Amino acid sequence: MDLGISGRVAVVTGGDSGMGFKTAEFLLREGVKVVLTDIDDTQLQKAASELAAFGEVRAVAADLSGMKGVEVLAAFANMAFDDKPTILVCAAGITGASGDFLELTDDDWLEAIQTDLMAGVRATRAFIPGMRNVGWGRIVLFSSEDAVQPYVEELPYAAAKAGVLNLAKGLSKAYGPDGVLVNSVGPAFIATPMTDAQMEKKSKEKGITFGEAIQQTLDEERPGMVAKRRGKAEEVAAAVVFLCSEHASFITGEFLRVDGGSVMTMGA
Question: What does the pLDDT read at residue 227?
């Protein structure tokens, strides 16, 4: 299927691994030129080298938890190719601090908010003007199942991801008339380095194998996940790239859950 976005330029944050990496790959396969960013320059350059097999990719390390990092990214992205970016995928995120609500500090909360919410605020503020100028844009913000089905030990993350939903909806209303479509995706328990680390920690704490940690999480915390497995990064990437395409030209302000049924309600 021709998605109608060949030749466009995309910015993908959180692109050195996991869902961001796969999204970049899928965009490149569609003929999109990609600007890739993440914090760790060594890992980022390795990812960019691997992705170069699929198309034109440029990479710049940037910490999007502060405005300076977004300024670095925007300056680089606007000069990376002849055309300016008209696709933005904000996949950068952290789990952040977890535990008993009463034991979490303000700094714990602010860490999650700065990366999981404010990075998206800063990135969209940087790139929407260019999209408005050409009358076409696609933005996909990564939220989470936690945004609508919070887990009590991950409240800073859940609250920040709920903010992402509100941000996406608000931006869709504000800039839809200018041709800029904004949506969000809600992955759940995807096989990524982030959930690998969580499962490794769980296996050590409980004295069980990595596979047993996954199964226990599915049984006890994800009973609605009918496939009884972790999702794949490419399953999320396929949904994201569709939302970036011309085939999604009548979709904006939506929250697409890629969660294997994990969220057990009909609401957002």
Answer: 86
Q: Write out the DSSP string of the chain.
A: ---S-TT-EEEEESTTSHHHHHHHHHHHHTT-EEEEEES-HHHHHHHHHHHTTTS-EEEEE--TTSHHHHHHHHHHHHHHSSSPP-EEEE--------S-GGG--HHHHHHHIIIIIIHHHHHHHHHHHHHHHHT-EEEEEE--GGGTS--GGGHHHHHHHHHHHHHHHHHHHHHGGGTEEEEEEEE-SBSSHHHHHHHHHHHHHHT--HHHHHHHHHHHH-TT-TT-S-B-HHHHHHHHHHHTSGGGTT--S-EEEESTT-S-SS--
Summarize pLDDT for 45-86 with one digit per residue, the tens.
999 999 999 999 999 999 999 999 999 999 999 999 999 999
Confidence of residue 1 (pLDDT cuts 50, 70, 90): confident
Radius of gyration of the chain (CA): 18
Distance CA 24, CA 3 (A): 15
pLDDT at 264: 80
- Is residue 153 a contact partner of residue 221, using CB atoms and an 8 Å limit? no
pTM over 0.90: yes
